[in-house]
Amino acid sequence: MPEEVSADKKALDLSEEMPLIEGVETDEEILLSRELTSNFIKAVKAFRFYPPDNPTLKGLRDQLLRKFQFFLNKYQSFVIQVGEYDLSYKGKILYENRDAKTSLAFSLHKDGLREIRFRKNLEEWEVQGIIDILKQSEQINPLEDDIVTMMWEKDFVHVSYLATDEFLEETPVIVPDHVDQFRKGLVLKPLAHHVEVDLAEEGSEKGVNLDDVLSKVNEEPSPFVSDRSVYSLTPDEVERLRKDVEAEVDPVFVFDIVDILFEILILEKEQESYQDAVNTLIKVLDGFLTLGEFVQAADLLKRAYILLKTYILADWQIEKIGEILLKAGEEARVARIGKVLEREEVPLEEVNAYLSLLQKNSIQPLVKLLGELKNSKARRVFCDALSEIGKDAIELFIPFMDDRRWFLVRNIVYILGRIGKEESLPYIQRAFNHQENRVRREAIQALGLIGGQKTVGLLVRALTDDDVRIRCMAAINLGKAGKRAGLIPLVEIVQSKDFYKREPVEIKAFFNGIGMVGSNEVVPVLQDLLERKSWFGRGKTDEIRIGAAHALAMIGTADAKAILEDGKDSKDETLRDACTQALKSQSS
Amino acid sequence: MPDEKPTLDQEHLPAKLGTEFITTFYRLLKGTTLYDRKSAVIDRLTQECLQVVNGIIQWEGNLLLKIVRDHFFFNNNWIIASADNYLTFKVFWQEMRKRRIGGMEFSEALSGEHLKDLVYLLSGLEENNESNYLSVKEQLEHRNIESIEVGKLELSKDEDISIDSEGLKKYSKEVYFRSIGFVKEVVESIHQQKPLPIRKAKRLMQYAVNAVMKDDSTLLGLVNIKNYDEDTFNHSVNVAIYAIALGQRIGIPKKHLSHLGMAGLFHDMGKTKIPEEILNKTEKLSPEEWSIMRSHPVVGTELIMRMKEWGELSARMMEGAFEHHLRYDLTGYPRLTQKKRITLFGRIVTIADFYDALVRPRVSLRFPYVSEKILGIMLERSGKDFDPAIVKVFINMIGVFPLGTLALLNTHEMGIVTQTQEDTELLDRPKVCLIYYSDGEYRKGKVVDLREMDEVSGDFKRSIVKTLNPNEYNINVAEFFI
User: Shortest CB distance from B392 goes to which of A237, A266, A284?
Assistant: First the structure.
């Protein structure tokens, strides 16, 4: 609860709840019990207020455990009596809070707890278990749970309790003390037909004629009675049952309920019940996402799609199944994904498989989460998924183009590029003017992916950008575009007077761009550059020659090849090497 | 026990040896309550146990059995009871716990007399005396038996607050009849569209689990009550109890047992939405009525879906409601289109539901008619309708002569089976409450153990000759469990 940081201090302030001892308490046991109770309450409150990953919590828990162990080693047991508003030990009140909303004693007492006993050898998991229960006590749904029930489920070894269960007696029940009283409760009426038939063999509606079966009873006992092998378990059966139990108690196993829910979606014809099944499936999906079970979550959505595609459904059914797909992409569910990615390593291909099944309504929450993700690989997965989901909804990405986080803008540009729609060009152009070079570079990449005549203008503009990487990318993308409109600016630049001064990587990129266009028209220019003598030092000329040779090889026309073949036999070593390398690369 | 060391892998060997020791030692200990030290039966049981003990000492060097809480450690390996020897372990544990003995160690090969000394010393101990182990030690020292050590059972939690069998019976009855009252309340809640009182159900099922874990025979006796109040209420509680007891035997942990109980308790909730004229119709149902009737698993699942808290518990309850008419081979209803398997909880509830329905009083019968023939029907259908392994566990649980069977003995006495044997070898020799006719009705007599043997002939003193229809004698067997 980060926004309530100031309240934490208040919450842990126990000055009003730990009554002052009048006079001087000399009994060491009482003093220690008071200290222990104080630590106990403090720990419970801290666990209620701080987020679970707060490091303070472990310290508090360990301290409490030590206090318990010290006390229990000395006195064997620590028995807290639970009053309506107070907790006491050996008749001394150690905690008191008469505010029903905040009193720990009250929350225990209202659920029927009257005494908690801690015994020697108390273990860490038990202290944590108690804290976990009490921390949840404020959120318990009183119709479905209580602290006593939760204590029972924990099955503590060194913690026990006394509890009342008056609520069970709200409805009077006669427990017969003797046979006559029992007989009064008997209802002797004929058995309904359906019970008989339920016992029948498949397909039969006549039922088991049990009377026939039992009429034969006045004979010897059934043969199986004396044949123990019939009911002795084989080692394989014992092993199978053991495995079944193991699988059944695995918490993840509860999600097998998905099978039942989809059966209901096929069988049910009532809208209200259908809605219940849909709601439950959404809760199951929440469970999957909370646990990071993306394969299962994806499977659930796939089954919804299959249902839509393979069954004849009424419009209202289609709408309700569609609700699952829509809810899957809502902000709350996307936030769960974020939490899982934050706390653990998750196979990202599984995340991707799930995200790809979401619908357009998930775009906004996913982009919001994308802006918060720290893991670059996860961001990539999100971008790829969004490129799929957003194919026909680029307008949903546009608001994020103005985000103050440059990296998010870059991701959006990447996504728009992957989607490859010309409608996004104005926004990409805007991104090209972004102050952050990495965004501008992404814009150039996106232009390359979108392609088309409309991208050429911007790419040509980028050829003269201040950033060398942008110039390189623009050159390559112009080449990829394969449009002759981009060829002329490229050729003009490589022929320019100072081109040789540029970095080898840029020289290479420009010639690659020219090569990729693949036009025979440019062959004479390249030949000139290849064969031109250097007045400015050998190294730079070499780069030009290599680039030109490589471009010729990429063009690959007969004219281009002939020039390279001639060059291979040249007396000029650099020319010869450049042509030889280019021809090799062409053949490979 | 063969002379050569069994060739099992390291993981399974301690479990096998430990199980053999516990089984034979327990038989011997139990025999001391029936037979004199010099009887031929005790000699035989001693020899059987001795062979196991000395074999283990020969191979392992020593034999150490330790009990920690309700776990057994054999030569420092934790051994778990499997479904078929579950009850032997449990009853042995109860016997040791009662005597506050937490383990024993044999460091050398024993003689038959020394082993007998030990079991008779253990057998004669008073209950709940923490010094028992000291007195056994003293006695062993006094007899110069140095190769045997016994230890104290360290109790934790509230284990030292023991409930006697009468107390447990009363507790079980409370749980049983309160649960019937509860189901009634649930049905009313559904009719009035109120939320389901899940908290109550949980508490009740936790109590039922407590009772079953202490001794399942009391509650399993009470499930012979078949027509108390409305049929559905009674049936739901019975299914819950059978399911918990079955689940316990196959090793389902405590928390999940209460969930299994809930699955049993709520399995038929869908019937609350079926019109009464169909539900109670004794004549043949029309196809339309059938269709409505057979919707109850789906309707029940949907009712559970409306629970506020969705999680492990509601999922289990849905399994019970949806799957209890599905068969092991996936036939039955509702007809499946996608589902490929039935959950363990579903398979358990199906068997519990089937058995309880089969034993219910029928058109021509007023009282439940329990018979081994019913188990025969289940065995016949096992593999097709039911999980065969769970059917076997079920039979091991209720005995081949189930609790409540009215039996004629070879002594011409009549009796009702009131307790099954923990030893699977002796499932056909239950404890029987003899009945006699007086003042116009059958009354309870003494309880006899059909394992008891005649010292002279070596034959069993009593055996079941055949099972009888209680309706012909106007006996409601359920009354013998009240």
Answer: A237
